[in-house]
Amino acid sequence: MDKLKESKIKKLFNLITKLSSFESSDVDIILNMPFKSELNDLLVLVNLTENEKLAIDICIIKGATILEATDIISVSERQIANYLSSAKKKMHQVWSCNNQARAFLYLTKIHDIDSSIKSILKIK
Predict the structure, then answer these.
(1) Residue 35: pLDDT above 60?
(2) What is the structure's pLDDT at 22?
(3) 42-94 pLDDT, tens per residue?
(4) In contact, 45 and 94? CB cutoff 8 Å
(5) What's the pLDDT score for residue 32?
(6) What are the backbone angles phi and psi of residue 53, rounded to the nearest 5°?
(7) Do 118 and 31 contact (CB within 8 A), yes or no?
(8) Which of 38, 42, 43, 37 is nearest to 55 (CA)?
(9) Long-range contact pairs involving 2-6 (C-beta distance under 8 Å, separation at least 24)
(10) Phi, psi of 56 (to 5 degrees)
């Protein structure tokens, strides 16, 4: 098998392997999906504190900066960052086992993989 073909096969295999995994970074993909009502359904599944919910709502859903969130929640930037980090860890734990979350992630990844496959194989 020639080197170019072998390289393309390895790239395709690596892309397809990504579909079955659920990594911490996948939480951000789900949080940024355009389906906000479905996102709210997924957020309800996670046992977040009130401050974690506020931090997610302000910084992720509404798009405010951490500095802007400090004015709203009246805590330090570090505490906002801690709320976000803690919330994302909880989301990862719950969503990695949830079929609806995995389905949204799969749809997003399959679109990215389709684009990547076309690029690898030079298909328009």
Answers:
(1) yes
(2) 82
(3) 999 999 999 999 999 999 988 899 999 998 889 999 999 999 999 999 999 99
(4) yes
(5) 85
(6) -60, -45
(7) no
(8) 43
(9) none
(10) -65, -45
Q: Which amino acid is at 10?
A: K
- What confidence category does residue 111 fall into, taking pLDDT thresholds of 50, 70 and 90? low
Residues 6+ apart with CB under 8 A from 52: 83, 84, 86, 87, 90
Nearest to 29 by CA among 120, 117, 112: 112
- Rounded distance, CA 48 to CA 46, Å? 6
Instruction: State the DSSP string of the chain.
Output: --HHHHHHHHHHHHHHHHHH---HHHHHHHHT-S-HHHHHHHHHTS---HHHHHHIIIIIIS---HHHHHHHH-S-HHHHHHHHHHHHHHHHHHHTT-HHHHHHHHHHHHHHHHHHHHHHHT--
